[in-house]
Amino acid sequence: MEANVPRKKSRLAKNKKKAWRKVDITDVEEFLEDERLQERTGGLVAEKLDAELFTLERKAPATATEDPVPKKKRRKEPKVLKCYSHLMPDPKIKLARKPQPSRKVKDKQAPHIKEKVLSGVKTQKELKAEDQRKLVQEKRLKKDRTKGSIVVASYNLWDDEPKKPVDPFAKPLVKRPKRKAPSDLPAVQVPHPGASYNPDYEDYQELLSKAHEVEEKKLLEEKKLQKFEEEIKKVDPKTLERTWLSEMSEGIKDKEELKEEEEDGDDAINAEDLDRISVNPPVRRESKKTRTQRNKEKKKKMQEKLKAQGKMDKTKANEIFRLKSMKAELDEREADLQRKAQERRQKWQSQGLQTRKLGRLKFEEPLLEIKLSGELEGSLRKLKPEGNLFVDRMKSFEKRNIMEPRQEAKKYRKYKRKTVIKRSHKV
């Protein structure tokens, strides 16, 4: 009995997640899979038109009795050999200009233009083009004629201002930009007339006096150095050591002095703190001002202000009578400004002749090239050369602010020089 009793269907809540596994969705999955397949293979069939789905066969079906048409066999072209491949044009490289087919202008011309050409009447534009072509041709012929010819000078070479021949085919020269030289001094300075091989007596004596002054200055500097060395030698070595120690320990202080300074500093800090606490004196009730006292002070300040304003107005009014003196002051100021401007101009002009400091070294004037009276020769052939041309040019560059002053490089050895006695010398 119990076996035949119908079972109650288990009701499941559809809104719960448990029910999802119990529902059969195979038909839905099949339908979706079919739709995906259609989309992959050309679109949904339901959405397509009849013309897209069906085609009409217009040709009659081929019968078995009819003989099929034999296909024509294509003739095989002979293959190009590999060795000739480099002679063929590369398909990857684009040609600069494609070969264009020849065009017959006459055929493409309009009938009214054809009539104009046949009549022989030329337009203004065509006439102008013809003239232009003639001019170009004449110029070319002229150039070819004068190519091998020798240019003959059509002016006197020994004139003060000779005229240069004008070349009709020469390009115009480019104008050089104007640039101010770093110095107004000439590139090659004229030497002193006393430096001549056969100088005038006065000029020679002047040059000698200049050389004498230079030597005197050198001697004075040497004497100063010698004097200083002698003074150092006189001083006792112990006193020298003491002075050296005192100089070296100028900024260093003793421990006791440092302690005292620290204590003084603490006291100063304490005093400062006290000052900060009580900046102003305590306010007392007796010292408080009344309203009448404040009003009086305000009134007094206002009166002083009005008085000062009246004084200023009075001085401004009196300035009208000072016009003469003011004019004299203005004239004096203007004259002073002009004088200063003149001084500045002169200073700026003189700077062009001065040597500026360009590097770390200062410019030193070169030594005077002078021959003593015993070394002078009557003939220029017997005279020995003085100075160096290269050094002279270098000094000129330095003096004219073109190059910074330089020092001669000192020669020194990186390693100690070995001394070896030869065997032959030993013997």
TrEMBL record:
Domain of life, per lineage: Eukaryota
Pfam families, A to Z: Nop53 (PF07767)
Keywords, ordered alphabetically: Nucleus, Ribosome biogenesis
Chain segments carrying region Disordered: 57-78, 97-132, 169-200, 246-318
Feature: compositional bias, Acidic residues: 259-272
InterPro entries from the UniProt entry: Nop53/GLTSCR2
GO molecular function ontology, one term from the record: 5S rRNA binding
Main location: nucleus
Positions with biased composition (Basic and acidic residues): 107-132, 303-318
Annotated Basic residues bias: 97-106, 286-302
Biological process terms in GO annotation: ribosomal large subunit assembly; rRNA processing
GO CC entries: nucleolus; nucleoplasm
Subcellular location(s) of the protein: Nucleus, Nucleolus; Nucleus, Nucleoplasm
Family: Belongs to the NOP53 family.
Purpose of the protein: May play a role in ribosome biogenesis.
The protein, known as: Ribosome biogenesis protein NOP53
Species assigned in the record: Magallana gigas (Pacific oyster)
